[in-house]
Amino acid sequence: xxxxxxxxxxxxxxxxxxxxxxxxxxxxxxxxxxxxxxxxxxxxxxxxxxxxxxxxxxxxxxxxxxxxxxxxxxxxxxxxxxxxxxxxxxxxxxxxxxxxxxxxxxxxxxxxxxxxxxxxxxxxxxxxxxxxxxxxxxxxxxxxxxxxxxxxxxxxxxxxxxxxxxxxxxxxxxxxxxxxxxxxxxxxxxxxxxxxxxxxxxxxxxxxxxxxxxxxxxxxxxxxxxxxxxxxxxxxxxxxxxx
Length: 243
What we know:
With 243 residues, the chain is mainly β. Helix content is 6%, strand content 31%. The chain is built from 2 helices and 13 strands, in the order E-E-E-E-E-E-E-E-E-E-E-E-E-H-H. A hairpin with a 7-residue loop joins strand 12 (173-175) and strand 13 (183-185). The longest helix has 7 residues, at 206-212.
């Protein structure tokens, strides 16, 4: 089903949760490429520059790929949400943590210019040392029309065409929980990383609950207030869920 988003009449959203621990390496959270049919990707360059491409046959478009200036993606070891939205009218927007970092179109090399697809083209994530990915989703809809608060976790819905959660924790295979139910294989070196404690058991590590505002941490000890209160109700004297 994820091949259908190559059709010019269908919008698409590519998004991922990514962390950069060290500078100087290149990361591609999503790429599909065939010399005779298609090329679409979203990339983060070594200097924090974000680059994207959404095109059909290479001979059907000209000009450089679109990219931001350097330092846009933070190299800070924290997870950030990156999303590219291609709209039905040919316009596009790229979001970082729910805020637009670039928008434009239609036209240029970033638009699919023909309906030809290659159903055998492989979808890939291309990583390097110093990068972490904890989820990647492709949708056949315009998920974000304006500024938004990114969801920490995703549940497959009617717009999902591919959703890889990277939560297996071992082995070299990763599962797609979208409708195609694909299996991916990790090639080359890799390491599974435990992202941290999840004291409230909601499937999101404590640090991300706090960073997103889902949980408060008024004493800045890295533990969500609700977890400390659950162990000692007297820590919340006014019953508002905050220490």
